[in-house]
Each structure stands twice: as C-alpha cells, then as structure tokens.
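Researcher: I'm comparing several assemblies side by side, and this is the next one on my list. It has 627 residues spread over two chains. Same procedure as the others: predict the full complex and return the structure.
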Amino acid sequence: MKKFLHRFRDYAALVLILVALVALFGSLSNHFLTAATFNSVANRIPTLTLVATGMTLVLIIGGIDLSVGSVLALAAAVLGVLLVDWHWPLLLSALAAVAVGVAAGFFNGFVCVKLRVPSFIVTLGTLEMARGLAYLTTNSQTKYLAGKVDALAQPIAGLPITPATLLAVLVVVAAQFMLSRAVIGRKMIAIGTNEAATRLAGIATAPVKVFVFATAGALAGLGAICQSARLGASDPNGGVGLELSAIAAAVIGGTSLSGGKGSVVCTFIGVLIIATLEAGLAQIGASEPVKRLVTGAVIVLAVVADGLRKKSQS
Amino acid sequence: MKKQHLYLLAALIGLAALSACKPAVPADAAAKPRVALVMKSLANEFFQNMAEGAKKHEAAHATDYELIVNGIKNETDLTEQVGLVEQMVAQGVQAIVIAPADSKALVPALKRAKDAGVLVVNIDNKLDADTLKQANLPVSFVGPDNREGAAKVGAALAAKLKTGDQVAILEGVPTAFNSQQRRAGFEDAMKQGGMKVVSVQSGQWEMDKANTVASSLVTEHANLKAILCANDNMALGAVAAVRAAGKTGQILIVGFDNISAIQPMIADGRVLATADQHGDQLAVFGIEKALAILKGAAQLEDKKTPVDLIAKP
C-alpha cells in the first residue's frame, strides 16, 4: 500500500488535472459524463498513445523524432495501397506498414549515430521525405479501405473498448517495463543522462540509439494501422502536427526534453489529458480560438503543476 | 498518510462531488432537437461566415432547436473531423450537419453515427456517391452545384481572354469533391472559350501554399494570361504572387466563395470574378433540412442551393 501510494504520488498532479477536466466538462455539458464519451475518448487515443510512447523513448535518450507524423502517413499510405490496389491480405499489409515505420526509424537512427547528424535535423528531413513519399505512394488520393481493417476499431464483443485501444495500453505497459526493469531501459536512461560517460563506462551506445529510433518508427507504423482502421481510409494528409501532440503528451507527463528522464505511463496520462480536453471542448462547441488557447494553457499548467509537486517533494 | 495525500484526497472527493451535482436536464430541453454543425477549417473565413449564419439562425429559432458548432484546425485534418463526429454522437445530438473534409474518408464515421441513430445531412462538399452506396448510408446533400458555379466564373473570365490564351488552374485539396467539381467547371469554361490550360496544381485551399505555387507558375509560363483559383483564399495568394512578379493586370485572377477580403480586389480589378454560394446560408439550409426530416416533413433528398457570379459591373 505504501509502495502504491508512493507510486501514485508520481502521477498525482497529472491525475488531478485529468479529474478536474472531467469534472469541468461534466458541469458544462449535460451529456459529457456518459459511457458514450468515455468510449469515444478511449477509442480515439490509440494512435497518439503509440506515437507518444515512441516519442517518450526517443526523448529519454536525449533525441527527438519530428518525423513520426509523416512516417505514420507513409505507413498508412503503404497499407492502403497494398490492401486496395494490390489486394494483399490484411496481415501482410499491416506487417508491411510496420516495416515501413521500422525502416524510417532505422534510417533516422543510423544517420544520427553513424553520420553524427543531430536527430532534430535528420528527423526534420525525414518529416519532409516521408510526406513526399506518402503523396507519391497514394498519388495524393485518400484510399478508401471499405471496411477491410474495421475490426481493429470496432469494440470487442461485450466490452466498450476496441482492440486498438487494448493494443496501445499493452504497448504502454511493455514500454514502461522495458524502461524501468530491462537492461536496455537502464542503458537508455544512462545515455540520456550523460552519453559520453555511458560510452566511457563501456556501453555500446550506438545500437541502443538505433533501436530506440526504430522502435519509434515501428510504433508510428502501428499507429498508422490504428488510424486507418478508425478512419476506414488511409489518408496521405494524416498525422500533420502529430509530432507536436506527441511531444506535448510526453512533456505533460514530465519527460525531460534534455533526456535521461521520463515515464511512459505518465505520457499515457498526458495523452488522456489531451484527448479529454479535445473531446470536452468539442462537446461544448467551443470556438476554434478558444480551443487553441485552452489547450495551450493546459499544457503549460500541467507541466508547471508537475514541477511544483516535485519541488515540494524534494 | 502525509498531509499532501490528504489534500489530494480532499480535492478528488470535492471534484467528484462537483461533477455529481451537475444540473439535471430540464424536461423541455430534452424535447428540443439538438443539431451539431461540423465544419472544416474555421481559419477559413468561408466557414467562419457559415458558423455565424448558423448561430444567428439558432438565436432566431431558440425554441426550435439547440446547435453545437465545431470546426477543425486545418482543411486536411481528417482525424480531427472524425473525432468531432464521434464526440457529437457521444453528445447525443439528433442530427449532424457536416461539411466533410474528405469525400470518402468521413463515410465510415458518419455510418457509425447513423447506426447510433443520428441523422446525417451533408453540406458544402458532397460525399462520394459510390462510397456512400458501398457503406449503405443514404444522406441528403444540401449545397450548391460547384461545377455550374465554377463554369459561370470561368465564362466571365473567358469573355476577357482570346482563343489560345494560356491559363492555369489552382485546385483545392484534390481528394475533395467540391475541388474536383470546381476544377471541372473551370475546365469546361476554358474548353468552351478555346483557352489552353497549361497547368493544374493544388494550393490545398490555403493562401500560403497557393502563393508558392502561383509564383512558380508565373515564372514558368511567361505567357500565362490567367489563374483560376478554386477558392478565394488561394486567389489572394495568387494576387500576391502576380504582384511580386510585377505582372498585376497582365495576369487575370478569378476565385470562388466571395469572402470579404476579395471584395476590394474585385472592385479594383485585381480579381476579375468570384462566385458567391451564400456560405452564411449554406449551413442554415442544411440545418433546416435536418429539422424538417426530423419532424417527418421532408425526405432524404438532395437540395440545390444558389450560386451567383460576382464581378465588377
């Protein structure tokens, strides 16, 4: 119990903000506190959760991945073309989409490590390239999937949540386990804290970094599958600005932009905060300027609140 | 238990209590139909006008229905628009009046909405007929004939040009049906007038993108005589590009939508013509249709709304 409370304290500020948002929107709208809202939030988060998980890992090693949104669009484009135009079976097409993500992530990691280009720059380049390839792959047309991947975004029989949400939650758990229990996770934190010292301690940093970027790419690929399932279409314009939402979720969750610190579970709560905010603002019909003002303010507030909590603890 | 935990607990309980004691739904409000208007980018004045027109209509008919208005950040953000449709279903609205950002990709989400018992009325950008048929989703479309409107604008331009003159078309997001229709209307008029379309490119409906594309068009085609833009935002971008190239007056520009920024340009000739599809009334037509169907006073059929040519007299 003591351990649980101790754990809970790490999430306290975030959970509090989440609860406050739910209460706020609940009092502003008579229709917000319903199972339908819960389901719609639960089922819209898989893509952002997956991508933000990858982003958290990259931020922890002191990198950044700006390409996730475009890589997601490219993976979705490949999925759509393989399914619709080439008539590949679903499983193979999905694997290909993830493979595209891995390849893009591997490219990011490889250029970053071997050619010593900062990840900000490499992934900025990949952001453009992957978007271009997504347009080329689909001929700039949205591919309508006509129910081919719907199952992933349909609620599991008897449950309110979809397989996509379940997958995203499992990935969060697995990534958190890797980060806090597995050797590679400790290595990642060491690299983010002090890469030179880690190298001098005899740890090969290059493979770890490439692995992290490839993982972020793979998760963008998975995110693409979830998004295509939800849209019932693969959209080459998809994922624009997703990298910023993912970074926002990670930062709300207390991930340090300078590396060495972060938690996937906290990022997940960050995703929930963003998704609840979006859902609530839409349901009360807030105007576009208000939406953006409030969203920005909540991001800053969440980070400040989390910082205050840590300060009071130490 | 530490002090902090107590504070936390107190706060949680307080919030839970707050959310539990939200006001109960008044009986008459429950009987009033709730209609959601889901639009595209509210950064685009056209949709801003549409939203204001709809809100005015709601204010004038406050006893008849309740309106929730939403739009997305940029024209291509399908995911956000699908999210909005889902939120509106969660809000328990009776009807969704939507200007879809994509003619095909919104269909599955709207189908889910219909399966949840929500009436769907399509305005502005027509959903793809084949996709609707595949999804078995009958919707009624309330909107202008974009092809006819664009052809009118194109004809006004053709009257100022000579046979064989070179023209370029700036289309919107190529996947959007209204963009395809306007492009087709422009092409119809140019063909009829005997002009040569040397390039068709997308400005993604946005001023900035259109400016970049128009600049390169002007450089690449030295004899270009006109640029036909599928909306006024892009026409504004084209006007700036033509001015930057020092060719104001030599290259004619037409747009579509009749936004307020374009009106002084029509007056001084920087833009030759545009089309007014009465955007402020478009959502209202859609809402009225939805209310009529809800009451059982109308069928699920399409309704054509007027498009007028706007040019300097």
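Model: For your comparison table: The longest helix of chain A spans residues 2-28.
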